[in-house]
Design brief:
This protein has 400 residues and is mainly α. The protein has helices at residues 5-8, 20-39, 45-48, 60-92, 94-130, 152-174, 176-190, 195-207, 225-243, 255-273, 285-313, 319-334, 336-345, 353-375, 380-386, 395-399. The longest helix has 37 residues, at 94-130.
Length: 400
């Protein structure tokens, strides 16, 4: 990474109260969840994971799409979340920050789960009844009987936010000198060219204990430490980026080259691990280790590339992107029953899988967006999700 003002002695450029490009990136990563969960119905059984429905026009291309999105979506989201978390802690203090996280993340997590768990279970049973291949049991029907479903990342985000904020508070209170030295070291280290290798190495270490051939997810109330560490690396990276006075602007240069490199290393990763998908990682430790290193390289190239790409193209305020950023939270929260139930409705149609995928995804996108606009945006639910009630107007009218 090139040097920036955080280590050259010049005063850092103040970070604005709202970084529009990072809002847009966060929204896109949220909405890619709709793409991923719709695509799972069109992935062949071997690579689809736990999903209730497999369309008869399933194609391995959708498996590649799911793997690609899963490689960078949550890591990029946690990096942006860490950046904004550091911003809020500095502006509001630890106590106010934790209350803010509980209100904006904790309450939607609990309320969303109570509402969506039964709806998703019904959709799951319906989808399984239409599938030609018996796949996964309904959520919560396995060992333990509890599953946070697609809301797992909100729970882990709460844990990471509390852990990092409390660590910062304790360090400033009991070891202010040590905290200052640690922050200074982080500022300098992140600006060095070798920082990329350090980030990749740390992430590869967190991926090594994975019990799958990819970055795992977990919907339990006691997520494995390996997952908190893996996602925590990206969260802390975003936190430290704010702490050093930056906002990822130095990543604008060569962002397309990084994204291209991410694709290249993702292809290498699949070439290494795909022949072993039917085996447990412990049965092929060398392939698993090599695959996790390649996956770590791909992850960081994608994360840094997308951060730079969005900072490069979407820094200016945009009513449309601001609207979509506000809507994306609701759209992600409520999308799962739709993305489970809509593809089976097209089961009897012999159209290509890509067309059916596009129709199911478009319907899920439209339903979640319309319900946000007319049922959420100007209500107390919208205030809980977005921080305030917004007028029920479309972006073009709002810009006028």
């Amino acid at each position: 990474m090139p040097r920036d003002t955080a280590v050259t002695g010049n005063p850092p450029r103040p970070v604005p109260a709202r970084v529009h490009s990072l809002d847009a990136l966060r929204a896109v990563m949220m909405l890619l969840g709709l793409v991923l969960h719709t695509a799972l119905s069109y992935v062949p059984e071997l690579s689809s994971g736990e999903w209730p429905y497999q369309d008869r026009r399933a194609n391995e291309w959708f498996g590649w799409l799911v793997s690609l999105i899963h490689t960078f979506r949550m890591p990029a989201f946690f990096a942006v979340a860490g950046f904004f978390a550091a911003f809020l802690v500095e502006r509001r203090g630890t106590g106010a920050f934790l209350r803010h996280r509980l209100n904006r993340i904790g309450v939607p997590l609990v309320g969303g789960w109570v509402l969506l768990f039964p709806l998703t279970a019904v959709a799951w049973i319906f989808a399984a009844s239409r599938s030609g291949v018996p796949l996964a049991p309904a959520p919560g029907s396995g060992a333990g009987g509890f599953d946070l479903m697609h809301l797992w990342f909100l729970y882990q985000l709460l844990i990471l936010s509390a852990a990092v904020a409390l660590f910062r508070s304790a360090s400033l209170r009991f070891r202010p000198g040590g905290a200052a030295r640690l922050a200074g070291f982080a500022r300098q280290a992140l600006a060095r060219r070798w920082a990329f290798l350090v980030l990749v190495g740390v992430t590869a270490l967190t991926l090594a204990p994975m019990e799958a051939w990819e970055l795992e997810t977990d919907g339990t109330l006691l997520p494995p430490l390996r997952l908190l560490l893996a996602y925590g690396v990206f969260f802390v990276f975003g936190w430290l980026e704010y702490g050093r006075g930056g906002s990822f602007g130095h990543l604008r240069d060569r962002c397309l080259a990084r994204l291209g490199g991410g694709l290249f290393f993702h292809a290498l990763y699949l070439a290494v691990v795909a022949p072993y998908f039917g085996m447990a990682p412990a049965e092929a430790p060398f392939a698993h280790g090599a695959g996790m290193v390649l996956l770590a390289v791909s992850m960081w190239l994608f994360v840094l590339g997308f951060l730079g790409f969005f900072r490069r193209l979407l820094d200016a305020p945009s009513p449309g992107w601001r609207y979509l950023s506000d809507a994306s939270y609701w759209m992600y929260l409520v999308h799962l029953p739709l993305t489970v139930a809509l593809p089976p409705l097209l089961a009897g149609w012999n159209a290509p899988g890509l067309i059916k995928f596009g129709i199911a995804l478009g319907a899920a996108f439209a339903i979640t967006l319309v319900t946000y606009h007319y049922g959420v945006r100007a209500t107390w639910v919208g205030k809980r999700l977005n921080g305030r009630r917004y007028p029920r107007v479309f972006p073009r009218r709002a810009s006028a």
